[in-house]
Amino acid sequence: MEEKTVTKYIVFRESLVQSLVADLATFGMLTFSIWFSQGSKLWTLVCFIMFFSFVVGRVKNKLKTNPSFRTAEKLKEWVDSEVTHNA
């Protein structure tokens, strides 16, 4: 019996520098939240909820903006449409 492999192509629209800046901002926000909420259970909970909602929002946004393709032909079609759209 022959196994069928599926290749999935994912296109990322942000550069390495943009990704690093976004990650540093996220960890900076987490650090500030931890520092701000020292000694208070209420503010610890509030900061946790704010940070968690921020992370969930970023993940949802990334999943929406990064297209994925199962075939190289579909990927080529998408790249061609992006080139003509941005020209």
Q: SSE order, as H and E? A: EHHEH
- Give the amount of beta strand, in percent: under 5%
The poorly predicted ranges are none
Strand order of the largest sheet: 1-2
Separation, N- and C-terminal Cα atoms: 47 Å
Average pLDDT metric? 77
The major pleated sheet works out as:
2 strands, antiparallel
Helix and strand composition category: mainly alpha
Give the helix proportion (percent range).
Answer: over 70%
Radius of gyration using CA atoms only: 20 Å
β-strand number: 2
Tally of individual helices: 3
Shape: elongated
Give a written overview of the molecule.
- With 87 residues, the chain is mostly helical.
- The chain is built from three helices and two strands.
- The protein has a two-stranded antiparallel ribbon with strand order 1-2.
- The longest helix has 25 residues, at 41-65.
- It is elongated, with a radius of gyration of 20 Å.
- The N and C termini lie far apart (47 Å).
Structure at a glance:
With 87 residues, this protein is mostly helical. It has helices at 16-36, 41-65, 72-86; strands spanning 9-10, 68-69. 70% of the residues lie in helices and 5% in strands.
Secondary-structure blueprint of this entry?
Elements: E1 9-10, H1 16-36, H2 41-65, E2 68-69, H3 72-86
Antiparallel strand pairs: 1-2
Helix pairs in contact: 1-2
Salient structural properties:
2 strands, 5% strand, 3 helices, two-stranded antiparallel ribbon, mainly alpha, 87 residues, elongated
